[in-house]
Structure formats: C-alpha cells, structure tokens
Design goal:
Elements: H1 3-25, H2 28-39, E1 45-50, H3 57-71, E2 76-81, H4 88-99, E3 106-110, H5 113-120, H6 129-134, H7 143-146, E4 150-151, E5 154-155, E6 157-159, E7 163-164, E8 167-171, H8 172-177, H9 186-198, E9 202-205, H10 212-226, H11 228-236, H12 244-257, H13 269-277, E10 281-284, H14 289-296, E11 305-309, E12 316-320, E13 322-325, H15 333-344, H16 346-356, H17 372-383, E14 385-388, H18 398-414, H19 417-434
Parallel strand pairs: 1-2, 1-3, 9-10, 12-14
Antiparallel strand pairs: 3-13, 4-5, 6-13, 7-12, 8-10, 8-11
Helix pairs in contact: 3-16, 10-11, 10-12, 12-19, 18-19
Bound molecules: beta-D-galactopyranose.
Length: about 425
C-alpha cells in the first residue's frame, strides 16, 4: 500500500472514531439535529400561555419546560407570555384568542369564581376530572383550591401553586441600621413608616402601573382591620361596606399611600421590589411571588431580605392559586395532557414551587425541597384561617373586582371616604343580588 492510501485510511478512521465518540457520549446530538430540521415544518408543538415574565416566575416556568422536554424531546414548546398586570393584560389577549377560536394548548388562570364564570360556564374548557382519576390525584390536593376549580361535579384545571398575599417584605440592612422591629398592628406599622420617613427613607415601595398593587394594599388593610371572618362576610353580604370599620380602612389606605415612592405609577410590581433591593425603599406589601424575585436577583432570605405578615392580619392566610386549564379543541391536546400531568405531579410541583416562591397545593409535597420562608408558609396554610385574595381572583368575579378598583381609584383622587364606602356598598348589593 502506498503512503497516500495509508494516510487517507488513517484519516477516515480518526473521523469515524471522533463521530462514534460524540454519539456515544451524547446520543441526543443526532436527535437535536433532526428536531431542528423537522422544526422547520414542526407541527408537534405545545403552546403555553401565561404572564410569567419576571424574575422567579420566569425561571420556574423554564424549569417546567425543561422537565417536560426530558420526557417529550420531540415537542417544541411555544412560550406565549403577555407581560404585566398580574394577569389582567394576559386575560384580555386570551379573551380575544378564545373568541377568535384560536386557543393556546393550555393557559394560566387563577382559581376562583371568575375562572368558573368566564371559562367554565361559557363551555370553553374541557373537564379534566379524568386526569385526577387516572393519576390518583383526587385526594392529593388541598380542597381550598379544588373547590375553586370545580363546577357541577367536574374539575377544570390543575393547580400548580398556592401564593399568599397578606405579607410585607423588607430590606434587612435598613431595618438593622435603624434598629427597627417587626410591626404587629396597623398602628405600629404606621409608626415604623413614620420613623423611616423621618430618616429620609421612602418607607413603602409601590409599583402600580398596572393598578392592582394599590388594590393589594387595600385588601391587606381590609383583612387586618376586619379579620378573616368579616373579610369573608363582605363577599356574602353579612358584613356591610358602608360602615365605620370600612371607612377606617379607606382612611388607612389614603394615609399609607403617602408613604410610597412618588414614581409609583410608572413602575411594575417587580420594579418596585427592585427598589427595596436597591435600598431606595424599605418595604413592600405584595404576594410571595416577591420571594422568588428576591432570590432570582441573588438575595438570600433572612440575610438580605425579610418578611412579616401584614400587621394586624396574623393568623389569616390570604391565598390565591395559579392553575392551568385545557381549552376545548386545543390543537395539541395530547401534548397539553402531558403538560397538565407534569404540573399535577409531585415532582413537577416540588421543582417549580421552591423557585417560584409558592407552596404546592399537593398535601403530600416534599417539604425538604423548600426554604424556611416556604416551610413557614406551608405551616401557616395548614393552621391559619384561609381566605381568598379578591385582587388575585380567588374570591369574587372580575366584574366586581373592577368596580371595587374603580371606586378606590376615584377615592385616591377625591379623598371622599364616605362616598367611597357608599359606592362599595352599592357595588356589593348589585353583585350579591345578581348571583
Ligand atoms: C399573580 C400570579 C403570581 C405572580 C404575579 C406577578 O397574578 O398569581 O404567580 O406571578 O401575578 O406576575
């Protein structure tokens, strides 16, 4: 054999060897290339619609996609998100899509009366009780959540998490520097804010570009001043809005807003949390998705940031839950079913929630995966008085929520407390009588 042939054969062998080495070490390499080329006309997709775009929530979602693709490597996930509004912006887009008969394969929605009114009763969803039966989930989820997803004996969504709304998050360095203690009553909360303001620190961060964070404050004051039982009574008509305690709440809200950053209407909720991180503000009262955000920004709970129950609302857990539903005629129904099975699984939940800053609605969730904040949240969820957060759709319809929001916005402008209390009562009468 001449030298040239030996060199050519040698080169071929080396290439073959490298090729085999790569494939054996990474079998997916061939598959990935195939998926890429097939994707060009790939109809094997899964479109997931949500409003999770901020730190913590986006990471949690990404991790779920990763898990999904591990068992469904051929499916291309389309991450359809609508930023902002804690769902209000997304809901508007979703309505248009559903009306236009082009639903996503699965979408995020809060558990509660609005879910039932808007989606279930309109016949837009497929009941998925069969998933609960096939996967042995029936007695695995908290009834507080499942009842908010059920209608006439069928369940219509898979709950992924439980969030808490009546909380305050704070910058620990500021609290340490000024030797502040945790306020336990609304009055102590006001004193803390006054002390901070005197030191020239903006006490409370607010980012109400999308309005709802102001209504979150209102809700937290309501729970603190009324207690859980009476807060619930507001939605059934046993507690009246046109009353002295409600006027106190409305005054409290106006006073509290005085302690917020002046640029609040230009900021989103996460930008406001960032103000606490940056030390521009000392505290923020918002749901525990902020916990996921703080960590996504590299902060350590209890060292860099702390939390306390909204003063006066101790013993009450104001919950809301993100769930995913299956629209009727979803184009990739089978892929969506796999997605929902992942969300409902113990593994899916215990991977997602520790990142997101929420607890799992599964009663058998493995608490070892959760940090101290989440462990305490879970303890509180099982021992506290549970109420639904109305601003995050766990208690009333979107229609009623909108009326309350408009009344509060008007109050902020005209500061007419008696009139706001009257209007809130009128809205309640209308809603309760129409049910
Ligand atoms: C809420 C949602 C949370 C969180 C927050 C901000 O409506 O339930 O999961 O993501 O919006 O986006």
């Amino acid at each position: 054999m001449n030298k040239a042939i030996i060199i050519t054969l040698g080169a071929i062998l080396i290439i073959l060897f490298i090729f085999l080495f790569l494939v054996l070490n990474n079998p997916g390499i061939l598959l990935q290339n195939r998926i890429k080329s097939v994707n060009y006309v790939n109809h094997n997709t899964l479109e997931i619609f949500s409003w999770w775009t901020a730190g913590g929530e986006a990471e949690g979602l990404r991790e779920l996609y990763r898990l999904y693709n591990l068992s469904n490597p051929g499916v291309e996930i389309v991450n359809a998100t609508v930023v902002g509004g804690a769902g209000t912006n997304a809901q508007a887009v979703l309505n248009t899509r559903m009306e236009g008969n082009s639903p996503p394969d699965s979408f995020q929605v809060h558990a509660g009366p609005d879910f039932v009114e808007t989606w279930v009763k309109q016949g837009l969803l497929e009941p998925i009780t069969f998933l609960y039966e096939n996967n042995g989930w029936i007695d695995k989820f908290s009834p507080d959540v499942i009842e908010r997803l059920s209608y006439e004996g069928e369940i219509y969504a898979v709950p992924l998490n439980i969030h808490r709304g009546n909380l305050v998050w704070f910058n620990t360095s500021i609290f340490r520097k000024y030797k502040l203690t945790i306020p336990e009553t609304p009055e102590e909360f006001f004193s803390t804010m006054e002390i901070l303001a005197n030191y020239g620190i903006t006490p409370l961060a607010l980012g109400d570009k999308n309005i709802w964070p102001t209504i979150r404050l209102f809700e937290n004051i309501l729970i603190a001043r009324l207690g859980g039982e009476n807060y619930k009574g507001l939605w059934t008509g046993t507690i009246h809005w046109n009353s002295e305690p409600i006027k106190t709440v409305l005054m409290d809200l106006l006073n509290m807003l005085e302690y917020t950053n002046s640029d609040h209407s230009a900021l989103t909720w996460d930008e406001a949390v960032q103000y606490v991180i940056d030390g521009k503000c000392a505290m923020i009262s918002i749901g525990d998705f902020a916990e996921g955000y703080f960590r996504a920004e590299g902060l350590t709970p209890e060292e860099d940031f702390g939390w306390f129950t909204f003063p006066g609302s101790q013993g009450v857990f104001s919950m809301f839950s993100d769930t995913f539903a299956l629209p009727k005629d979803a184009e990739h129904r089978e892929n969506a079913i796999q997605w929902l099975e992942l969300l409902g699984s113990k593994r899916g939940q215990d991977v997602f929630n520790p990142i997101k800053g929420s607890i799992s609605p599964r009663i058998d969730s493995d608490i070892r995966y959760y940090n101290n904040y989440l462990k305490l949240a879970r303890e509180d969820f099982s021992s506290n008085f549970i109420v639904g957060s109305f601003i995050q759709n766990a208690e009333i319809t979107a229609k009623w929520k909108k009326q309350i929001t408009e009344i509060i916005l008007k109050l902020i402008i005209d500061r007419d407390v008696p009139r706001a209390a009257q209007s809130l009562q009128a809205a309640a009468n209308k809603q309760i009588n129409s049910e």
